[in-house]
Amino acid sequence: MTGADGRVALVTGASSGIGAATARVLADRGMRVVVNYLSSGKAAQEVVADIRAAGGQAMAVQADVREVSAVDSMVEQVRASWGGVDVLVHNALIPYAVKSFKDMTWDELGGKLDAEMHAAFALTKAVLPDMTAQSWGRIIYLGTGLSRRPRAGMIALGTAKAALEQFARYLAQELGPQGITVNVVAPGPVESRIANDVLDDKTKQRQVAATPLGRLAHPADVAQAVAFYAGEDNAFMTGTTAAVNGGMAMY
Description:
15% strand, Rossmann fold, 7-stranded parallel beta sheet, 7 strands
């Protein structure tokens, strides 16, 4: 355990994948971690148990981040237990349709945009008072390389995450004078159970071949980038997007 003097980090969608990896890394660095989950309570408790077994502090809190009342209730629960949230890592993945624009309805595209931004808006509003009061805070949103480099069928996700990236820049400009940084971590394809279900071997091999570092990202690779943005060492980076893609896309 290394020191982050007990700062409180709320990680949304933290029962598996990037969220779980991030929760473990932040706890290892001395933060008290809130493992948010939607429906995977058992998996979330396993992440908490792992963190505690390693000597860290964590608790699991259920909340649908698309619901303002649920978000407010979660943050109140954290405040009652540990004080305010110092670090927000918004990782929870809002469902989306994978299809061409030609086949897509406005409900599918507009619904993803609305849910994506509503969740980020509600979470940020809920944690901001405590960050503002102490003139210190770290906000990290999980984006995607698809917001800059389109791929067939991914218009809903790519468009919504592009909006989230610009939202982050506006917040970074407004909140900087209050000691709060706002950044985005944008992974390329990540090796995970979900990716294995969605991507066939041929697609995965093509992506690996296009990556100078010769593999897909692991959740821990993404978690390390998040952890840098979340920590005391990041004193002067805000409004940026970190591409964690092994060089598959460079910008």
